[in-house]
């Protein structure tokens, strides 16, 4: 008996030491996030990708448009770790520079999408009633068109270019984002703590600042991070079918699109840009999942 | 052989729990939910397990059913005997034959205890069918309807879904499920807490009647001494995962001896005393992640001395069948009051 | 109940009208003169004007819209393709079965894979099985499907020569497209099944079923799955929408003559009636699928039979606000 007790005590003490230092909810979330191995992995890859984008000039051995006619469509070798494309351009360098396009465009699309959809959702959620009803019926209509089809149609109308692409993506994301943000606002608005704040006479403005914003922001941030991966995927898909970023810009989807004609002569032209996209998307998804678990442990 | 002989001797004991220790291991530390709890229930007896929220009552109940969520729960040590057989050593299959047949459970919240997408009839029939594999479907249904009627619900409601019932009615259905196979033991985990006060009385009365009718033993978990007084023979008071006092109901009610039990009684309104204010127990429940190595009630105790800090006392028998976990021989006020009437 | 079904079906009408407005608005914003697409560059100004008149391009935009809607509603007329001069509706109908089978078949396959995987993952939470399933679904959700399609092509067609690289109506040529889309559908659905099951598994009625002595398998199939089904169904419906879009890319890669390829080709040719028709058709299919999904909720959950599914929920929330 006594042995069991001392064993238990030892285990408890060990755990107790770990407990020290948990204070604010923010710190708590950070602790949970950093303890989540996959989330940390995601953050590390994102960090590396950002560094690659920033120091592309230093990392890339060649310029992204430098053509070398003596080295056309080479497979991976020492000089060209990812091989070269049909114009003798170094694919590794193009992929490195690609981080400068794919990452910011993906992030930009999310920011724009959150701004557009988020505003609509927050207005619907906050106003409620008729306003909410009308907005959500309009969102139903937008949702009836599959997102990628919507993006393609908008780009087809607006033409190629980054601002057009961002606009198309934010319209495509709008209905889902609006729905999520609206739900987030509703959850907070209907909560007992908001009701009780109202009951003790807290002003509307204070309720918005003290309760609505901080509680809804969490959900919105979680969704935004979760969307980055999807956005990068969708942009690369659009580039692939030729309505997003067009060659010779070294966006990963565009590099891939240029390489697809040469699938028979060398897989590497398609393989490596695709791997870049995949790793980026995975890391954002891992980070997003980790962030969700950390900020909202109940959802786990 | 010898072992078997011993079991036969303690045959009167339906359930016997020995030195049960259960911990929950979470990211934020170890919750010592149940600490060295031992008690037994005899056939046909009703034991009331009384304690505050978080004292570890439900954990004990789930341990008996072997339904603790693992992880995070860990049974550190302990043995649980049902009719002399150690449930901890049973296989999954064997346990499935025991659950619902020998031991069944009534849950705290009838609103969530029934499957929302199945008819109540089907849910009663399920348990009957599970433990009576030879029964024909028509017989099963017949039996299920009979069970519904036993708990006071017209059999015509067999095909209704849980959402068509009120809270009290749902709890009746849960009771019907628990009784359907005439188990030896029913574990009722705060069966009336989630109900309206008027409904509470009805459900309690029903349970009392059915317990008598079927002669089932019952482990009644509650935080309400009124309920204990109403239907229990024995009572155990639990604080911070430990039994601090146990005995026959008369022992506990007439002369409680643990400072915590005394405190609980003092915080109840009574009819025969004219008190201005109820006396609450000072302080808050001990943090189950940081229990002291000495008496866990020390910080809240009116009778504590330096001596108390030096040890964690064991339960000791102060009179036949009455155990108290305190080094002091405190005598509760209830003694004089109840002794007089 | 019946009233709800009728109301829900009627709701398709305003949604589709909205879709028509969006698509029509997009066309109106589009730069360039459609007449340029149809007539050769040598055409005279008179010929152009005559064509404009014939297409109704000189009418006010509202009139054009009303005519367009009237055409669709009364005789399924989506206009004529600028490229071929054929009615768009005919061209769409020829291509529709391929897209529909591709998207529906893949999503069904993905669902059939996802539900058992998600359940397994939830039941075995915190074990290596759960981790493995999560890793697989994380990979599948992060891989660009067009890239996966190209990798499959290069491995199974170019390298090994097992499967045809171009669609030839044979069963073998369906294998790769279906698998690529099914994997993409599976990943999301697995995660949703898992989280939905995890939530249900922790509920009291599952514990109640355990307390009855029910076996684990039956607890999952009889009690948990049906309760976890609504979010899964919703996700299947949504997934079909996503995959109708995904089919667009996959069809181009494998040269399948479906709606997706029709639309992408039409976009590069600026053949707008074709784009319009394709988008509207896919939107209609998606809306119809969501209608079916919504109605199926009432069969899954008896609580919803008496009430109106989404409508009341929304109204209740609005009323609370």
UniProtKB/TrEMBL annotation, chain A:
Residues 99-288 form the ABC transmembrane type-1 domain. Its main location: membrane. GO terms for biological process: transmembrane transport. GO terms for cellular component: plasma membrane. The chain crosses the membrane at residues 39-60, 105-129, 141-159, 216-246, 266-288. Pfam families: BPD_transp_1, OppC_N. It comes from the Bacteria. It is a multi-pass membrane protein. The keyword Membrane applies. It is found in: Cell membrane. Keywords: Cell membrane, Membrane, Transmembrane, Transmembrane helix, Transport. InterPro entries: BP-dependent_transpt_permease, MetI-like, MetI-like_sf, OppC_N. Belongs to the binding-protein-dependent transport system permease family. This is ABC-type dipeptide/oligopeptide/nickel transport system permease subunit. It comes from Catenibacillus scindens.
Automatic annotation (TrEMBL), chain B:
PROSITE patterns: ABC_TRANSPORTER_1, ABC_TRANSPORTER_2. InterPro entries: AAA+_ATPase (IPR003593), ABC_Ni/Peptide_Import (IPR050388), ABC_transporter-like_ATP-bd (IPR003439), ABC_transporter-like_CS (IPR017871), Oligopep_ABC_C (IPR013563), P-loop_NTPase (IPR027417). SUPFAM superfamilies: P-loop containing nucleoside triphosphate hydrolases. It is a peripheral membrane protein. Keywords: ATP-binding, Cell membrane, Membrane, Nucleotide-binding, Transport. Belongs to the ABC transporter superfamily. This is Peptide/nickel transport system ATP-binding protein. The lineage of its organism: Bacteria, Bacillati, Bacillota, Clostridia, Lachnospirales.
UniProtKB/TrEMBL annotation, chain C:
Residues 96-297 form the ABC transmembrane type-1 domain. GO terms for cellular component: plasma membrane. It is a multi-pass membrane protein. The keyword Membrane applies. It is found in: Cell membrane. The keyword Metal-binding does not apply. One of its GO terms (biological process) is transmembrane transport. InterPro entries: BPD_transp_1_N (IPR045621), MetI-like (IPR000515), MetI-like_sf (IPR035906). Keywords: Cell membrane, Membrane, Transmembrane, Transmembrane helix, Transport. The chain crosses the membrane at residues 9-30, 98-120, 132-156, 171-192, 228-254, 274-293. Its main location: membrane. Signal peptide: none annotated. Pfam families: BPD_transp_1 (PF00528), BPD_transp_1_N (PF19300). Belongs to the binding-protein-dependent transport system permease family. This is Peptide/nickel transport system permease protein. It comes from Catenibacillus scindens.
């Amino acid at each position: 008996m006594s042995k069991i007790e001392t064993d238990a005590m030892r285990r408890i003490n060990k755990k107790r030491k770990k407990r020290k230092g948990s204070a604010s909810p923010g710190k708590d979330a950070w602790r949970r996030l950093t303890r989540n191995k996959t989330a940390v992995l995601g953050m590390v890859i994102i960090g590396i990708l950002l560094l690659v984008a920033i120091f592309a000039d230093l990392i890339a051995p060649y310029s992204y448009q430098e053509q070398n006619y003596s080295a056309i469509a080479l497979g991976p070798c020492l000089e060209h770790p990812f091989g070269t494309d049909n114009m003798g351009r170094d694919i590794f360098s193009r992929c490195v520079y690609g981080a400068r396009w794919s990452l910011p465009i993906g992030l930009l699309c999310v920011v724009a999408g959150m701004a557009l959809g988020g505003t609509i959702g927050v207005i619907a959620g906050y106003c409620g009633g008729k306003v909410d009803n009308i907005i959500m019926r309009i969102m139903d209509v937008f949702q009836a068109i599959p997102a990628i089809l919507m993006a393609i149609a908008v780009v087809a109308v607006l033409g190629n270019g980054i601002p057009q692409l961002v606009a198309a993506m934010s319209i495509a994301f709008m209905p889902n984002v609006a729905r999520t943000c609206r739900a987030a606002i509703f959850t907070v608005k209907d909560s007992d703590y908001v009701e009780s704040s109202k009951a003790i006479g807290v002003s509307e403005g204070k309720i918005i600042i003290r309760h609505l914003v901080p509680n809804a922001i969490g959900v919105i941030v979680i969704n935004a991070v979760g969307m980055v991966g999807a956005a990068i995927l969708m942009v690369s898909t659009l580039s692939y079918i030729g309505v997003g970023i067009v060659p010779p810009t070294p966006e990963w989807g565009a590099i891939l699109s240029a390489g697809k004609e040469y699938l028979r002569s060398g897989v590497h032209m398609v393989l490596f840009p695709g791997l870049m996209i995949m790793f980026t998307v995975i890391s954002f998804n891992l980070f997003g999942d980790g962030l969700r678990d950390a900020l909202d442990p109940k959802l786990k | 052989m010898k072992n078997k002989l011993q079991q036969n001797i303690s045959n009167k004991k339906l359930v016997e729990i020995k030195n049960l220790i259960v911990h929950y291991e979470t990211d934020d530390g170890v919750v010592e939910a149940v600490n060295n709890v031992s008690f037994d229930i005899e056939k046909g007896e009703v034991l009331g397990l009384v304690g505050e929220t978080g004292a570890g009552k439900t954990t004990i109940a789930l341990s008996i059913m072997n339904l603790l969520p693992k992880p995070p729960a860990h049974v550190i040590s302990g043995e649980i005997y049902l009719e002399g057989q150690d449930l901890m050593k049973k296989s999954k299959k064997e346990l499935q034959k025991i659950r619902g047949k020998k031991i069944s459970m009534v849950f705290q919240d009838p609103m969530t205890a029934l499957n929302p997408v199945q008819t109540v009839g089907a849910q009663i029939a399920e348990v009957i069918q599970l433990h009576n594999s030879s029964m024909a479907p028509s017989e099963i249904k017949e039996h299920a309807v009979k069970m519904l009627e036993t708990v006071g619900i017209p059999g015509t409601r067999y095909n209704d879904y849980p959402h068509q019932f009120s809270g009290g009615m749902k709890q009746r259905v849960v009771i019907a499920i628990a009784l359907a196979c005439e188990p030896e033991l029913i574990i009722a985990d705060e069966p009336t807490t989630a109900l309206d006060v008027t409904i509470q009385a009805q459900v309690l009365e029903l349970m009392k009647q059915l317990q008598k009718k079927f002669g089932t033993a019952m482990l009644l978990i509650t935080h309400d001494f009124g309920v204990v007084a109403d239907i229990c023979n024995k009572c155990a008071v639990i604080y911070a995962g430990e039994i601090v006092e146990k005995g026959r109901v008369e022992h506990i009610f007439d002369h409680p001896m643990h400072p915590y039990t005394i405190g609980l009684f003092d915080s109840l309104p009574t009819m025969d005393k004219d008190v201005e204010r109820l006396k609450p127990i000072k302080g808050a429940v001990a943090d189950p992640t940081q229990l002291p190595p000495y008496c866990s009630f020390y910080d809240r105790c009116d009778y504590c001395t330096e001596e108390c800090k030096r040890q964690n006392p064991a339960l000791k028998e102060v009179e036949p069948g009455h155990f108290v976990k305190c080094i002091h021989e405190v005598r509760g006020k209830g003694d004089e009051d109840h002794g007089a009437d | 109940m019946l009233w709800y079904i009728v109301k829900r079906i009627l709701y398709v009408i305003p949604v589709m009208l909205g879709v028509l407005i969006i698509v029509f608005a997009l066309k109106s914003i589009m730069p360039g003169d459609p007449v340029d697409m149809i007539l050769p560059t040598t055409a005279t100004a008179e010929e152009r004007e005559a064509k404009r008149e014939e297409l109704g391009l000189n009418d006010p935009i509202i009139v054009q819209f009303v005519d367009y809607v009237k055409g669709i509603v009364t005789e399924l007329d989506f206009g004529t393709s600028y490229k071929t001069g054929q009615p768009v509706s005919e061209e769409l109908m020829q291509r529709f079965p391929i897209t529909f089978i591709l998207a529906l078949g893949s999503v069904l396959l993905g669902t059939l894979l996802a539900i058992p995987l998600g359940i397994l993952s939830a039941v075995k939470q915190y074990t290596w099985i759960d981790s493995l399933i999560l890793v697989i679904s994380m990979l599948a959700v992060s891989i660009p499907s067009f890239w996966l399609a190209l990798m499959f092509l290069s491995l199974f067609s170019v390298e090994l020569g097992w499967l045809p690289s171009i669609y030839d109506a044979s069963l073998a040529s369906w294998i790769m497209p279906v698998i690529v889309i099914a994997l993409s559908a599976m990943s999301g659905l697995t995660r949703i099944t898992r989280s939905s099951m995890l939530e249900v598994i922790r509920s009291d009625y599952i514990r109640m079923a355990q307390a009855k002595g029910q076996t684990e398998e039956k607890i999952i199939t009889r009690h948990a799955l049906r309760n976890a089904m609504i979010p899964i169904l919703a996700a299947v419906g949504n997934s079909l929408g996503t995959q109708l879009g995904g089919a667009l890319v996959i069809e181009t890669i494998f040269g399948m003559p479906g709606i997706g390829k029709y639309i992408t080709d039409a976009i590069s040719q600026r053949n707008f009636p074709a784009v319009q028709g394709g988008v509207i058709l896919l939107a209609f299919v998606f809306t119809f699928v969501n209608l079916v999904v919504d109605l199926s909720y009432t069969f899954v959950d008896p609580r919803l039979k008496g009430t109106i599914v989404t409508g009341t929920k929304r109204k209740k929330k609005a009323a609370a606000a």
